[in-house]
Amino acid sequence: MTKDDFGYVRERMISDLRKRGICDERVLDALRLVPRHRFVRDQFLSKAYGNYTLPIGDEQTLTQPWVVARMSELLAVEPTHRVLEIGTGSGYQTAVLARLARWVFSLERIGDLAKAAVGRLQELEIDNVKIGHFDGTVGWGEAAPFDRILVTAGAPKVPKPLLDQLAEGGILVLPEGGRTQQKLVKYRRGAKKIRRIECEEVGFVPLIGRNSWTS
User: Fold this and answer.
1) Could you report how far apart the first and last alpha carbons of the chain are, in Å?
2) What is the pLDDT of residues 165-183, one digit of tens each?
3) Which of 47-59 are b and which e, b meaning 16 or more Cβ less than 10 Å from the residue's Cβ?
């Protein structure tokens, strides 16, 4: 299979996501438009559109499509929104968010991954993303507040700076729990309080930083 021969398997992925309960059409369209095979290593091309978590180097992973879709669905991104993503990784989730939002600000602590993600997004002519290379657990204060915040690594609890940078009415989604197993948790900031909802169990690499796991 070559990098130009993925139309059928991409549609099969979308069909599988529907069967597994993803019903947000904007999310499904975003996953249809973003070529996941451009974000995987050549040796994993045959698995690019399967429901697999794949290694991308530096002990980091490319999240399986169902989890990408589910997190995007929980985030409920609108076309006018400014989104902060913590953990750029390969840039795949970033590209999906870019199809849903007006602007995406994405933070990656590993320099090589950040640089590679910038290159992929440029090749795909995605121009509404800004990627920063620093500790994501402190957020991106100069660009705050954000309508939506997505964390793509597991934290013992939500980093307070991220909640502080969430706009009123905004939603934050992250995997919360242990170092290898967590639950997706959705936070919504109201005028007077923040509501917390636990969702599905997931397994992400740990979120490393000043306000999370330290190593």
Assistant:
1) 38
2) 999 999 999 999 999 999 9
3) bbbeeebbebeee
